[in-house]
């Protein structure tokens, strides 16, 4: 079984910071792309940031300069450091990872989501 476990969400005032973590575990062989999506009420799900195994990074335009994605391959973990948070950042954040398991099957896995609420 391969699973992703998220942590770090919560309530913060505008201008504050949060750090999200997402750790993969189970019968995995390797991890390729990892990243974060978010979905706010009444809005489409959007890609916030992703990072490849080779270190290529993409950010949503509205979070550039405020959010930083990173990964620790030894811990099979991806992080999202969120600074200068705005009320518009309020959403459920979902991590994902493209994983090859020990049976050499490659597919995407998803965390259960963590709520980030930014008050004004």
Label this structure with key terms.
62% strand, 120 residues, mainly beta, 0% helix
Outline, from the CA principal axes? elongated
Spans of at least 5 consecutive residues whose pLDDT stays below 50 are none
**Count of separate DSSP helical elements:** 0
Calculate Rg over CA atoms: 14 Å
Structure class? mainly beta
Helix share, percent: under 10%
The termini sit apart by 41 Å
Overall description:
This protein is mainly β and 120 residues long. It has no helices and eleven strands. Strands 2, 4, 5, 6, 9, 10 and 11 form a seven-stranded mixed β-sheet that branches. The protein has a four-stranded antiparallel β-sheet with strand order 1-3-8-7, with no helix packed on it. A hairpin with a 6-residue loop joins strand 4 and strand 5 (46-51). The N and C termini lie far apart (41 Å).
In short:
This protein has 120 residues and is mostly beta strands. The protein contains no helices and eleven strands. Strands 2, 4, 5, 6, 9, 10 and 11 form a seven-stranded mixed beta sheet that branches. Strands 1-3-8-7 form a four-stranded antiparallel beta sheet, with no helix packed on it.
